[in-house]
Amino acid sequence: MRIDIISAAPELLQGPFSASIVARALKANLAEIHIHDLREYGLGNYRQIDDYQFGGGAGMVLMAEPLDQLLTELHKNRTYDDVIYLTPDGEAWNQASANRQSLQKNLILICGHYKGIDQRIRDLWVTKEVSVGDYVLSGGEIAACILADSIIRLIPGVLNNATSALEDSFQNKLLAPPVYTRPSNFKGLEVPKVLLSGNFKEIEKWRDQKSMEITKNRRPDLLKEE
Q: From the CB of residue 39, how many other CB atoms can be counted at a distance below 10 Å?
C-alpha cells in the first residue's frame, strides 16, 4: 500500500512514522508513506499557499492552485483509490473505515490547515471526507497519522500475530475484554482463574461476556449500530 500525504506543515508528520509498528511496516516494504510539502507548489517568490476567504471572516484558506498542481502531478504517476480530505465536517472514522481502506492500493490524504481548503478542491478532487472526532485540531496532520496508523496495522504481515488486529476493540462492534500478564497475583489482585485454566472454550466464553459487559457500560451506542 502507498499513502501520499499532502501537508502545509510536513515537519509534524516525521516523528509518528519513525518508530513502532508503522516504521517496521515501512522498513519491510509492506507499506509506503510519501509526505509532500504543499509549499513547494506555492505561488510566486514567497511560495504562497493560503489567502483570505471571500466574503470576509477570520482565518486563512489553503488556495486551490497549489493543491491542484500537486494533485495533478501525483495522478500522473498512478491511479488512486481514494483522495481523502481530513476535516471536522467529514464522515466519522471508525474501525470499519480502517478495514475498508486497508484493502486499497493507493491513497492520498490531504491535511487541512487554518480554516481549511478551497471548496473547489473538494469538489474536483476529493472522493472521501473524514473526521477523527467531534473537535477541532490545528491541522489535519495528526488526523492523517491516525488514519495511516489504523490502516497500515491491518495489512497482512505488519503485526507479528496475524489474529491480533482481529481481536481489537470495535472489530466486532464490541470493546475488548480485560487483559492480564504475569504475575498472577499483584497487590492482592488475582488474574481470573478461567484465564489460567487452559480451557480455551471457556476462556473465549469469558472474553465474550466481558466484552459485552464493558460495551454495555461504556459504549452502549455501539450495540445500537446496525
A: 16
pLDDT digits (tens, 9 = 90+) for 107-150: 999 999 989 999 999 999 999 999 999 999 999 999 999 999 99
Give CA torsion, residues 196, 157, 27, 143, to 10 deg: -80
Does the predicted model carry a pTM greater than 0.85? yes
Place of cell 473538494: 122
The set of long-range contacts for 11-16, using a CB threshold of 8 Å and a minimum separation of 24, is: 12/139, 12/141, 12/142, 13/141, 13/144, 13/145, 16/145, 16/149
Determine what percent of the chain is predicted with pLDDT higher than 90: 88
Domains of the chain: 2-152 (3.40.1280.10), 169-224 (1.10.1270.20)
**How far apart are the C-alpha atoms of 86 and 141, rounded to whole Å?**
8
| Angstrom distance (rounded) from CA 31 to CA 93 | 20
Find the distance separating the first CA and the last CA of the chain, reported in whole Å.
29
